[in-house]
Design a protein that fits this description.
two-stranded antiparallel sheet, 7 helices, single chain, globular, Rossmann fold, alpha/beta, about 260 residues, disordered C terminus
């Protein structure tokens, strides 16, 4: 059917958000993901496990890209009661995606293609993965994708270069994942800088922090973040209350957390 001005309507997405959560080691990324509406199905890549005080249902370790897509397919076509899918982690998934790309191209490694073209070719597998994530969201399922951080130099066109946290992925995959996500949340401990006199009218700044954690939801010079739900720059993360804080800004408000 051809588009026409006569068929104008309004639109607004009420789908569960496609969420990426990354942060420093041990800050509670998996614990936060486990608070999303249940039942939760946990899909770990090699080497990933939930913390000892978090119990999650899992079919086992994801060993291949197509194996993960098969699980997504079952979630889309079979009867089940899962409301949240947790992928742990994106940087653990990346080598599986590269392996699938290499199999499609008939090469041994992603570097064997030459001139960086292997990473460009991998866009096809990443796009297939992200399309599946979007299909789960449209089906009413929350998708939470966990990732580790890395610190990179950012060459800003409007200022001197500086360092910031970002998702630990190849830059092309990083851009694709962030573009498709509804929420990119950076979790870190609250840090404050305090000045100390060291003599001779000199002061030094020292970073101090504690156990208080924040979920950052809007990009700042020090880290990548975003959201499409008019969320504040950051919210507090206390165990058992993290998703409840996020849910206040999602379609349906606090009712989503029920």
């Amino acid at each position: 059917m051809a588009l026409s001005l006569a068929s104008l309507t309004t639109t607004r997405s009420n789908n569960p958000p496609r969420t990426v959560i990354y942060g420093v080691d041990g800050v509670g990324k998996t614990s936060l993901a486990a608070e999303f509406p249940g039942p939760v199905i946990y899909l770990p890549t090699e080497g990933e496990t939930p913390p000892s005080d978090v119990e999650l249902t899992t079919p086992g370790v994801v060993e291949s890209f197509h194996g993960l897509l098969d699980i997504f397919g079952e979630l889309l076509t079979e009867e089940h009661d899962f409301r949240t899918v947790v992928v742990d982690s994106l940087d653990g998934l990346e080598p599986l995606i590269w392996k699938a790309t290499c199999a499609r191209l008939g090469v041994e490694s992603i570097e064997a293609v030459g001139y960086g073209r292997g990473y460009i070719e991998a866009d096809a597998e990443w796009t297939e993965y992200l399309q599946a994530v979007s299909a789960l969201s449209r089906a009413g399922i929350y998708v939470v994708q966990l990732a580790h951080p890395e610190i990179i130099r950012f060459d800003s066109p409007t200022s001197d270069p500086y360092s910031r946290y970002t998702i630990k992925l190849h830059r092309r995959a990083n851009a694709l994942v962030r573009e498709q996500a509804d929420i990119v949340a950076f979790v870190n401990y609250r840090i404050s800088l305090k000045e100390k006199e060291v003599g001779f009218n000199k002061k030094v700044s020292r970073a101090e922090g504690g156990n208080e954690r924040l979920v950052h939801l809007n990009e700042k010079p020090g880290f990548v973040a975003k959201n499409r739900h008019s969320m504040p720059d950051s919210i507090p993360f206390k165990k058992g209350q993290g998703f409840a804080e996020l849910a206040k800004f999602l379609p349906g408000g606090e009712r989503v957390a029920a």
